[in-house]
Design goal:
Residues 1-51 are annotated as: Disordered. It comes from Amycolatopsis vastitatis. Residues 53-206 form the FAD-dependent urate hydroxylase HpyO/Asp monooxygenase CreE-like FAD/NAD(P)-binding domain. Pfam families: NAD_binding_9. This is FAD-dependent urate hydroxylase HpyO/Asp monooxygenase CreE-like FAD/NAD(P)-binding domain-containing protein. This protein is of the alpha/beta class and 459 residues long. It folds into two domains: 49-208 and 369-457, FAD/NAD(P)-binding domain, CATH 3.50.50; 210-274 and 310-366, FAD/NAD(P)-binding domain. It contains twelve helices and 22 strands. The protein has helices at 59-70, 87-96, 119-125, 132-142, 151-164, 246-257, 285-292, 296-306, 316-324, 379-382, 412-415, 422-442; strands at residues 2-3, 49-55, 76-80, 115-116, 171-173, 176-182, 185-190, 195-202, 206-208, 225-227, 238-242, 261-266, 273-274, 328-332, 336-341, 347-351, 356-359, 361-364, 368-370, 397-398, 401-406, 456-457. The strands form six sheets. Strands 2, 3, 5, 6, 7, 8, 20 and 21 form an eight-stranded mixed β-sheet that branches. The protein has a five-stranded parallel β-sheet with strand order 10-18-11-12-14. Helix 1 links the parallel strand 2 and strand 3. Helix 1 packs across helix 12 (422-442). The chain is globular. The structure holds flavin-adenine dinucleotide (FAD). Flavin-adenine dinucleotide binds at residues 55-61, 79-82, 87-89, 92-93, 96, 98, 101-103, 107, 175-176, 203-205, 247, 408, 420-422.
Length: 459
């Protein structure tokens, strides 16, 4: 469902803003004793070899590691900069004060096709800890409607997956510098030593989009300007927020709640309100077929058309009210061309129409960009075209490096705009885990595969 701002009429769909607030930091029951929940102490260097190396322990890396567990693949090394499963995801949401996910209960990094605990099962098991609003959302999910998932529930569920699929004990804190495909193996070079693997799954997620250097002229980035994923400048007075997506909406809302006046620069003609961040059809097989089965130029066009910045509907009433009350000024259809230090420690943003917007500080939320393997793999192995890697559509392996595959945003030209979402990771994971497990069997590596019905990571 989509919409643009305007008077709220009797027929408009405006879900209650109360859905945006859920408690954070509740005490969830820990996973059963004996299961590891964190990095074992004293493990500095990853082992020199493994059947599979997973690069990145975000929701995508967690999904693929859990799925490989069900396939009977146990010799896995997960390498992550922060060393904690989904650490970057929760650091980002917490920095923004985000209390609920945008994706519904069906979208989760748990494993489908095996006996496992899904996110909705997990929430129902912990019914007694949920607020009345959260319980209603669980019922919505059970009835097949769109639902809102608390970040708190999602984090507890991710911890559950980590424990039940033995992910923590496979995870090492390491920065991966290079991924070098060789004959029958892949060498992964890290700041803590190399790991040689039969297969590598890249799950590095997305990096924030930086402002063009022309914004700063010849000077440095003025103090008082930060990006959305950096520690915020503690400030008062007027804040300027640049960007049109959910991240920007969280920043604007947070500043308004803190009693600040906000100027919001939105490049599009108007901000766009929508439940999910891509059209719901792209979460379904027929939507994915629209991307996978069409010529390259059409895929690019579809992607550009449907992958636009948007904000959850629930934000609209509070933002519209703040604008009407003059606490929020929205500069719609305006583009920043220059950012400089102003008088008295302020920040000045010059817009394309010549107008100047000044604030006590400014936060930039210009979106994120998929890591497609460039900078890790040799460029010839990535085979980048229009910013996308050359992937085998069935296995999501690099066409020119078949022992390396991807789960995450980089699969966009195969799975469509939902590739960057948790649901897209689920679809990619099923393909990649299956292909990797088959590859290991072909290699003659022992895989302790149990019949599907016998495998379970129960609650
Ligand atoms: C604020 C915010 C809210 C979002 N909310 C939702 C939502 O509600 N629903 C949804 O479906 N999607 C949401 N998304 C999109 C979301 O980013 C993805 O669904 C999810 O985080 C992607 O998981 P990932 O594992 O691909 O990437 P990440 O979560 O970014 O994890 C990648 C990991 O790989 C590590 N890494 C990268 N490169 C290296 C390297 N060279 N060496 C070692 N480690 C490395 C990173 O440090 C990170 O820990 C949100 C995104 C943001 C920014």
């Amino acid at each position: 469902m989509t919409g643009t701002p305007g008077p709220v009429t009797g027929t408009s769909f405006v879900p209650g803003p109360h859905l945006l607030g859920s408690p954070r930091g509740r005490d969830w029951p820990r996973p059963p004793a004996g299961l590891p929940t964190g990095l074992p102490a004293g493990r500095d260097e990853p082992p020199p070899s493994a059947d599979v190396v997973v690069v990145g322990a975000g929701p995508a890396g967690l999904a693929v590691t859990s799925a490989l567990w069900h396939h009977g693949v146990r010799d896995i090394v997960v390498l992550d900069r922060g060393g904690r499963a989904c650490g970057r995801f929760f650091a980002r949401t917490d920095r923004l004060g985000q209390r609920v996910l945008r994706s519904p209960y069906e979208h989760h990094p748990g494993v489908e096709g095996f006996r496992d605990c899904e996110l909705l099962d997990f929430a129902r098991l912990h019914w007694g800890r949920l607020t009345p609003v959260e319980r209603r959302e669980v019922r919505m999910a059970q009835a097949g409607h769109r639902s809102v998932v608390p970040v708190d529930v999602f984090e507890a569920y991710c911890e559950h997956l980590v424990a039940t699929h033995e992910v923590a004990e496979k995870t090492w804190r390491a920065v991966v510098r290079e991924v070098l495909p060789a004959d029958g193996e892949v060498v992964v070079r890290t700041d803590r030593g190399p790991v040689t693997a039969r297969h590598v799954v890249l799950c590095p997620g997305e990096e924030r989009v930086a402002a063009p250097s022309s914004w700063w002229g010849d000077g440095p980035v003025p103090s008082g300007v930060t990006y959305w994923d950096e520690p915020a400048t503690p400030g008062a007075g007027r804040q300027v927020v640049v960007g049109a997506g959910l991240t920007a909406a969280h920043l604007v809302s947070g500043a308004l709640e803190a009693g600040r006046e906000v100027h919001w620069v939105v490049r599009a003609a108007t901000e766009h309100y929508q439940c999910a961040d891509v059209n719901a059809k792209f979460f379904r097989p027929e939507g994915r077929a629209r991307i996978g089965g069409v010529p390259w130029a059409d895929r690019l066009e579809l992607f550009a058309r449907y992958r636009r910045a948007s904000i959850m509907f629930e934000f609209r009433p509070a933002l519209a009210r703040a604008e009407a009350e003059g606490r929020l000024v929205v500069h719609r259809g305006e583009e920043v061309t220059r950012v400089a230090a102003g008088r008295g420690g302020t920040v000045e943003l010059r817009l394309a129409n010549g107008r100047l917007v000044a604030g006590d500080d400014a936060v930039l939320a210009l979106g994120t960009k998929p890591e497609i393997g460039l900078g890790l793999l040799p460029a010839s192995a990535v085979g980048a075209r229009d910013g996308w890697p050359d992937l085998d559509g069935r296995t999501l392996a690099y066409a020119r490096a078949p022992r390396v595959s991807v789960v995450g945003a980089a699969a966009g030209m195969v799975l469509g705009p939902a590739a960057r979402n948790i649901d897209g990771h689920r679809v990619a994971t099923a393909r990649v885990a299956d292909a990797v497990a088959r590859g290991l069997r072909r290699d003659g590596v022992f895989v302790d595969a149990l019949p599907r019905s016998e495998v379970g990571a129960g609650v």
